[in-house]
Each structure stands twice: as structure tokens, then as C-alpha cells.
Specification:
The protein folds into 2 domains: about 170 residues, 3-Layer(aba) Sandwich (Peroxisomal Thiolase, Chain A, domain 1); about 150 residues, Peroxisomal Thiolase, Chain A, domain 1. It has 9 helices and 14 strands. The two termini are about 25 Å apart.
Length: about 325
């Protein structure tokens, strides 16, 4: 490790992925790439939380099956979600007789999961690891903001939490996308207190990690086909570009955001998508297929997360945020 950046000598491979997404998410471009499109956001369950857990189980099993493996051939599951005590990931893991590491980075959890899985494989401790993350609009709204039954008006700076999950089977060998390095983020807090304005809160953390990555690797933004953040939304993306520009780094030409991609920022989504499932779905469906077909060769995947809770928000605390970057190469 060189400061905040880890280089993976063995270049662990993403050999298979699996995704599932809700009805709203599949109305946009992502619907053409998602493996399983839900016709009912309850997914046949009695509660939103159970549906979220079932989605995670679905993509974990899907990634294993798509890699042509059985459950017993997987060494570890690294997974997380947005709910208290990461219950979706933990409850999903109880169905698998596989060692489990629960991780929490809010919406940055997919990048964190990839980095942790790659580190275990690169160190020779595991051969095959599933990294998976998910979220559900209804369960997240109830936990972080307001019960849906209140019919609360959404402010224009808000994003829409994605109903969906994505999983990746990472192995020490095979044909797939290489994970070559990861830049681990630091907690950054610019004093934002508005729980509806996640883009403004998370953009400084994304900027800090991106600037650190390019400083430590000595590369230029042009080294990547895409610099993908997730999930700043439209406003957060503009703030990120301004923050990096002020520091002498121009990412305008190849920066995209998962929150903007997943809904195409149509009118009632305001700023776009958010949630731990946002970047997980976009990466493991749309971006994965683009890389596997050769349309994209190298991307910097920077998932961002707001580390808030209803308790801290109620006590007037600001929103600390984090971003982790992972380099993916085909």
C-alpha cells in the first residue's frame, strides 16, 4: 500500500455478475442490461425489508451460478446494505454456509466490497469471493427520512433510492475484468446537514479520493475510458467537477455518475438515483457488459457514501461522507 492506494499484484478477476432491479429502475437504459427485472417491488414478500434481503440472496446465488460454481466452492461473501445492523446482508448470508464479512459504507459499499474481496484474493487467503450490495427505496425512505404513508413532498435537491442489488464473483483466475488497484477513502465532512441533499454532501469525499488516486498513481484522467462515481446525482456531479477543477484536475471529459445513468434523470427523479444498490446495479449490469464486449477497457469506479443516521441527523449533526475507488481493466 502506498498511502491510500493498494496495488493488487495478482489482479483478481470479476468472472461473473448478477443484478436485479425494480420496476422504476428498469424503465431506463439499465432495464436492457439488468439480469432480473422485478414486476413487483415487494418481490413476493410481506415487507420491504424482506424483499431487500431476498434481492441480495438472489444476486449472490446468481453470481455463483453465472460463474458455473456451487455454493460450497465459494470461500467468502462480502456484503452490505443501508439498513440498521446491515440486516439485509446478514439475513441473506444465513442461507449460505459460507464465511461472511458484513461491511458498511452506505452507498460506497459496492466499491468497499470489491476492494475487500480483491485484497483477500490477492493475499492468497481466498480463491473465490462474492461481493454484493443492495438497497430498496421503501425501506430506505422509512429508515432515513419519512414513512411513505405520510406522502411527504420531495424537495428538488433529493435523489431517489434505487430498488435493486448487484453481486460479483471475484476469483484468483479466469476470464473477466481485472481489479488492479483500489484507493481507500477518508471520511470527509463539509458541514452539510440536509438529509435530502446527498449529492452536495458526498461530492467533497469523491473529490478527495479521486484527487488522491491521481496524485498517488501519477496518472491522468485520460488514462481511463470512464471515471464513474456513484451516486452523486446531477447536482453532486457538477459540484465534484468544480472541486476537482479547482485543484487542477479536469475530469469533465470522461466523468459519469451512476445516479444519473440509472434513471436518465427524468422529471420526477429530480437529481437521479442513490442508495447502495445504485452503483451495484449499474456496475454489474451496464458497465460490466460494456467492458466485456470491449466498448470500455479501463474505468475508475468511485462509489460514494453518506455515513449518516436518523439519530445523528435528529441531533443536528452534519453528514460525514466517504468514497472508495477501484480500478477495473479488461
Amino acid at each position: 500500500m502506498r498511502h491510500q492506494t493498494i496495488y493488487f499484484k495478482k489482479k483478481p478477476k470479476i468472472v461473473a455478475t448478477s443484478t436485479i432491479a425494480g420496476t422504476k429502475e428498469c424503465e431506463g437504459i439499465i432495464g436492457r442490461y439488468v439480469e432480473t427485472a422485478l414486476s413487483d417491488d415487494m418481490f413476493g414478500e410481506s415487507t420491504y425489508e424482506k424483499a431487500e434481503c431476498k434481492m441480495l440472496s438472489h444476486v449472490i446465488d446468481g453470481a455463483i451460478a453465472n460463474a458455473k460454481l456451487d455454493r460450497h466452492e465459494v470461500d467468502m461473501i462480502v456484503s452490505g446494505d443501508l439498513l440498521n445492523q446491515i440486516i439485509s446482508a446478514s439475513f441473506a448470508a444465513r442461507d449460505f454456509s459460507v464465511p461472511f464479512l458484513g461491511v458498511y459504507g452506505a452507498c460506497s459499499t459496492m466499491a468497499e466490497s470489491l476492494a475487500v474481496a480483491a485484497a483477500f484474493i490477492d493475499g492468497g487467503y481466498c480463491n473465490r469471493v462474492v461481493a454484493a450490495t443492495g438497497s430498496h427505496f421503501a425501506s430506505a425512505e422509512r429508515q432515513y427520512r419519512y414513512p411513505l404513508e405520510l406522502g411527504t413532498t420531495r424537495p428538488p435537491q433529493s435523489q431517489w433510492t434505487v430498488t435493486g442489488a448487484g453481486g460479483a464473483l471475484i476469483a484468483n483466475a479466469g476470464d473477466g475484468i481485472s481489479i488492479t488497484s483500489a484507493t481507500l477513502g477518508k471520511v470527509v465532512d463539509y458541514g452539510i446537514t440536509d438529509v435530502n441533499n446527498m449529492g452536495a454532501a458526498m461530492a467533497p469525499a469523491a473529490a478527495d479520493t479521486i484527487l488522491t488516486h491521481f496524485r498517488e498513481t501519477g496518472e491522468e484522467p485520460s488514462a481511463y475510458d470512464l471515471i464513474v462515481t456513484g451516486d452523486l446525482g446531477a447536482l453532486g456531479s457538477r459540484i465534484l467537477k468544480d472541486l476537482t477543477w479547482e485543484k487542477g484536475l479536469n475530469i469533465n471529459e470522461n466523468h459519469v455518475d451512476c445516479g444519473e445513468i440509472i434513471y436518465n434523470v427524468i422529471e420526477d427523479e429530480f437529481q437521479g438515483g442513490s442508495g447502495a444498490g445504485c452503483s451495484a446495479v449499474v456496475l454489474n449490469s451496464y458497465l460490466h457488459q460494456k467492458m466485456m464486449t470491449g466498448s470500455l477497457r479501463r474505468i475508475l469506479f468511485v462509489a460514494t457514501g453518506a455515513l449518516l443516521s436518523t439519530v445523528t441527523s435528529g441531533q443536528g449533526e452534519s453528514i460525514p461522507c466517504i468514497a472508495h475507488a477501484v480500478v477495473l481493466e479488461r
